[in-house]
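Researcher: Let's try something more involved. This one mixes different molecule types, so please make sure each is placed in the same coordinate frame as the others.
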Amino acid sequence: MDEAIQPINVQSAKQKIKSYSHNPGSLILAGLVGLAALLTVLTLVFIVGYILIKGIPNLTPELFQLEYNSENVSMFPAIINTICMTVLSLLIAGPLGILAAVYLVEYAKKGNKLVSLVRVTAETLTGIPSIVYGLFGMLFFVTTLHWGYSMLAGAFTLAIMVLPVIMRTTEEALLSVPDTFREASFGLGAGRLRTIFVVILPSAVPGIFSGVILSIGRIVGETAALMYTAGTVAELPKSVMSSTRTLSVHMYSLASEGLYVDQAYATAVVLLLIVLIINWISGRIARKIKKG
Amino acid sequence: MKDIKETVMKYVFLLCACASILAVVLICLFLFANGVPAIGKIGIFDFLLGEKWKPGNDIYGILPFILGSIYVTAGAIVIGVPVGILTAIFMARFCPPKLYRFMKPAVDLLAGIPSVVYGFFGLVVLVPFVRDFFGRTLGFGGSGASMFTASVMLGIMILPTIISVGESSIRAVPNSYYEGALALGATHERSVFFTVVPAAKSGIMAGIILGVGRAIGETMAVIMIAGNQPRMPKGLFKGVRTLTSNIVIEMGYATDLHRDALIATAVVLFVFILLINLLFSLVKRRGTNG
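Model: All components are placed in one shared frame. Result:
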């Protein structure tokens, strides 16, 4: 997949020009395709470049102070909140998703009704817009379970959101573990559990990790699902039951209030950097998996 | 002893597998239980086809928002789909390997940028541009926060979905199609566009449907640049409010029937998404059956 196709009709420039002069339609198509790709890349470069150029000068040390107040809208508490929220969500969704994938791959028999039901629901979960998650979180965790606007409510909401991601990537990773591993382990007298935890899961770690990284990306970028579950308090959290705002929510508040545009630029830079790092790591993992 | 442990763990795994089923059931239950009675109270036709949204007077018609969502999504399709498909074709069949090593991460990055950052970019770049260029210079008027602005932004946001799904389905087409066309004397472009791409049609279609789902469900970016006036959409360069933005904007202070009407709005959105998901799996199944 990584390499582009190997051309089987290698032509010299001269041949190409001749071919195009006979077929102007082909030239137009080639031009259109190139133009579209250029447009896509330019859009990305423009967005990222604009935000970096406008934002980096605004990354002042004051923005990384412990305390948030109206004079200094520090983003440091929001960064801490984001980290806590990410860890908490992954602690919930990680084990659930991984163990669920183990069941789907290692235990369920082919054509099992339950398995197809799990697949359908997981696909449904992937498609649900984040604001619907947010409303559900508000109705269930905040109101019905009386957790109030809290980090815990936000983390559970996000956990449901990233559960299908972790499940799918883990499933793929488990499926790609060769059956000979399982056979060898059984042959040595290991039970099913031992085989899963000692042989299969360890060799599926890179795949599972890539799912976790993808989930981190979604959690960090999420806004709509958090506004009405974790709330928008911009201070350091006292416990998992206190209301918090993550970096994305922080940025939305700054941008929509209209008073702190410079700080919003700076926050956008931090968010972009996080995304860049996440993409870089997942690219490395993907390459590692491919090499085997 | 060992057998007990094995059996217990088997059920633990089973239980975890049921988590996603439980989640979907809970989401449906809570949304419908809170939203459907409100729809009943307002009257289903008044709710879905009412042209006025005035919570102060207990008038809750969400037709403006349904239309807003549909128009903005249609705009995103018009802008995003041609560029997305052509880029997918470029990446699968035209891109030299050296350039590909740069293009692929670029598309991934486009997919990874949080929607609030897209929205902010729209707010500080697109909105002033639309206001000054289309509004003043071309005389369309408007404040810049408009249906057009939101369509452009969403068009950009659905690009990575369309590109990556489209690219992988074009790559999945057997190379013999391409070789056969070449052997018949077709140029590279003709072979790609008239044999390979038609064979990848259902995969490309699935990508577009996924993109539509993303555009309809997008909230934060739209809120920041669409103007959000709660009235019937009046024109391409006038403000518009979508289903998603209606929920976020008013949920903070809504009470009683107003609050339930907002949850009912989410129910409508949810039904939209379920229909799109259904369409997606139908298209995908047709694709795998050949």
